[in-house]
Known about the structure:
By secondary structure, this protein is an alpha/beta fold. It folds into 2 domains: 13-54 and 334-344, Nicotinate-nucleotide-dimethylbenzimidazole phosphoribosyltransferase (CobT), small domain (5,6-Dimethylbenzimidazole Phosphoribosyltransferase, Chain: A, domain 1), CATH 1.10.1610; 59-330, Rossmann fold. Helix content is 47%, strand content 9%. It has 13 helices and 6 strands. It has helices at 15-27, 37-49, 81-92, 96-104, 145-164, 179-191, 207-224, 231-238, 241-255, 265-277, 295-303, 319-337, 341-344, and strands spanning 59-66, 107-114, 125-127, 169-175, 260-262, 285-287. The chain has a 6-stranded parallel sheet, sandwiched between helices. Helix 10 (265-277) links the parallel strand 5 and strand 6. Helix 1 runs antiparallel to helix 2, helix 2 packs across helix 12 and helix 4 (96-104) runs parallel beside helix 12 (319-337).
Amino acid sequence: xxxxxxxxxxxxxxxxARQAARERQGQLTKPPGSLGRLESLAVDMAAxxxxxxxxxxxxxxxxxxxDHGVAGEGVSAFPQAVTTEMVRNFARGGAAISVLARxxxxxxxxxxxxxAHPPGPLPGVFDRRIAAxxxxxxxxxxxTESQCEQALNEGREAVNRAxxxxxxxxxxxxxxxxxxxSAAAVACALLDRPAGDLAGxxxxxxxxxxxxxxxxxxxxxxRYRPSLDSPLAVLRHLGGFEIAALAGAxxxxxxxxxxxxxxxxxxxxxxxxxxxxxxxxxxxxxFAHRSAEPGHQRVLEALGAEPLLDLGMRLGEGSGAAVAVPxxxxxxxxxxxxxxFAEAGVSGSE
Length: 350
């Protein structure tokens, strides 16, 4: 697997576009640096997109859905059937991310990589089921090697579809009952931290439920520890199909220089996996928000990430990333639409 696509080097960023954007920022009718991070957002976007004036018109949101065998251990406040019911809700336009996509004029695509109960043919939903959910990692590895590869590939395919549609920005979301347990387990293994640092309430567990979840994660990580010798091994033993698909999508987007907004806890764990598969991926994305899920802060620190928003959100689905899109759009609008001192006939600083 050493020649796998997700190990292919990242292309260089467009430093000429970055420099031109930086110079433009220095000529706009404002004190230098007065727009704060909105300035660096536009400059970094220019380097990724390869144009002095970046644009964010075509937004692609892809929600990967999959079930988790570990749900059988009672680690979620909701039954597993909810994953399939929510896929139908996405297709009908009733979920939070459906509303946000409409508000943004974004395209929403749902990729079923492994629901336990097939939702049937639905508009906007790609049936890419690898299996009826992962296996229960409390008792056996969550995925086979080929299943893990397949999930990574589904992420790459989703990015390819986004590129073919002319996307200026990619947002990945996830849906899967018990996926905060899976994400916390992956993060514990990659960061070598106890589950008490990363396990949270997820869909709404009480303190006792969170403690039970943490014990289960610690036990599984300890059992598999001798085999967890690579990011792929961690993903295969403890991850979920949708987490693997997100990781694959983030690598593929970075390789394609397609800008990405990362959502909350689970998405950030997938990004952590992606950054371990191909270092540098984490420097080509923006982190949309700081989730209220306790483990998110640990993951953000490990990635050196400074999120754009902190709204106490913990929904998933890509919702926090969608909420941050207007910030990126405003950064691009200011960068492209403000007059320079010369254009405006305004005296510059001495």
